[in-house]
Design a protein that fits this description.
It is built from 11 helices and 9 strands. It has about 350 residues and is α+β, with helices and mostly antiparallel strands. It folds into 2 domains: about 1-90; about 110-335, Bira Bifunctional Protein, Domain 2 (BirA Bifunctional Protein, domain 2, 2-Layer Sandwich), CATH 3.30.930.10. The protein binds adenosine-5'-[phenylalaninyl-phosphate] (FA5).
Length: about 350
């Protein structure tokens, strides 16, 4: 029986050594050390032996059992480690490989400028109004005190549509639309696209304007100057040079145009400012009584100011862009230069 036990132990050891996965190990454990296993089977027959032999064989069986348990444990750990290493090897991630490049977009300089300007006016209490780009001549011209035969119509070369409507030449018709549906006090800005037959380094056939309108009792030209100064300083910084030049618009009286010192050349003269050192960025003035009459507001009771500024011009001066057409070509090399500006 002693030989039988030893042979069983050796047999199990060889199997453990040869085993190559956890399932095999588990099977060996059940087959040799389990309740109905081979070792237990031999031990069951111990009863037939003398007490001395029983003791001796009992001790031998325990030794073999402990030895096999240790070997099984050791092999299990070895196989688990090996399996883990194989798994890691198989799914290895090379962290030195370059990652996928995700191209991020950026805000267009015209849109960033439009948002910044709008936010400055909203912070001063103006709300945002909108109007259509396809507009009635009546709102774009007539009610703004520009009758059909008025030479001022030529100031803004117009695109006419077949249905008798036009592409709005400025955002000023939003003044009319607002005053027709809202009674003073009014404080609005109206950003949007406008269209004119116009094309050179500082003029584009489609461009953006922001209209401003403030109507209340006792509004003066001083209020207009103050608001525009706050706005220009917030966009260009306190050191910006500003000048008000007397001008003419049929819908404002008195009227002015505002120029700022050319930020591209610093005032010495360049292509953008056409050698003058100044660039015109907006038109403004006190709302003409004729406009108030056209929308049913009493000019004896209310006064107001209005302004209209060109966003592209402001973006050009802000980012030192020398040709307005660059803003609309969609050339990614140009657009990418403005990443992160907003
Ligand atoms: C007007 O359009 C008036 N509606 C502005 C106004 C509103 C005056 C309210 C008084 C009261 P003007 O045609 O000057 O005015 O245009 C205003 C601004 O738009 C200009 O100062 C200029 O900055 C910009 N602008 C004009 N034409 C173009 C163009 N073709 N491309 C880019 N910007 C332009």
């Amino acid at each position: 029986m002693k030989e039988e036990l030893k042979a069983l132990g050796e047999e199990a050891k060889k199997l453990i050594e040869k085993s190559s996965n956890i399932d095999e190990i588990n099977n060996i454990r059940v087959e040799y050390l389990g309740k109905k296993g081979k070792l237990k089977n031999i031990l069951r027959t111990l009863g037939k032996l003398s007490p001395e032999e029983r003791k001796e064989l009992g001790q031998l069986a325990n030794r073999i059992k402990e030895e096999l348990e240790d070997l099984l444990k050791e092999k299990t750990q070895f196989l688990k480690k090996k399996a883990l290493e194989e798994e890691l090897q198989k799914n290895r991630i090379d962290i030195t490989l370059p990652s996928h490049w995700i191209e991020t977009g950026s805000s267009h300089p015209v849109i960033s400028t439009l948002i910044d300007i709008s936010e400055t006016f909203v912070a001063m209490g103006f709300s945002i109004a909108e109007g259509p780009e396809i507009e009635k001549e009546e709102y774009n011209f007539d009610m703004l005190n520009i009758p059909k035969d008025h030479p001022a119509r030529d100031m803004q070369d117009t695109f006419f549509l077949n249905n008798g409507e036009i592409l709005r030449t400025h955002t000023s018709p939003v003044q009319i639309r607002t005053m027709l549906k809202q009674k003073p006090p009014i404080a609005i800005i109206a950003p949007g696209r406008v269209y004119r037959k116009d094309a050179d380094p500082t003029h584009s056939p489609m461009f953006h304007q922001i209209e401003g309108l403030l109507v209340d009792k006792d509004v003066t030209f001083r209020d207009l100057k103050g608001i525009l100064k706050i706005f220009l300083e917030s966009v260009f910084g306190k050191e910006i040079k500003i000048r008000f030049r007397p001008s003419y618009f049929p819908f404002t009286e008195p009227s002015a145009e505002v120029d700022i010192g050319c930020t591209v050349c610093g005032g010495s003269g360049c292509r953008v400012c056409k050698g003058t050192g100044w660039l015109e960025i907006l038109g403004c003035g006190m709302v003409d009584p004729e406009v108030f009459k056209a929308v049913g507001i009493d000019p004896e009771e209310y006064t107001g100011f209005a302004f209209g500024l060109g966003i592209e011009r402001i973006a050009m001066l802000r980012y030192r862009i020398t040709d307005i057409r660059l803003l609309f070509t969609g050339d990614m090399r140009f657009n990418h230069q403005f990443k992160g500006i907003r």
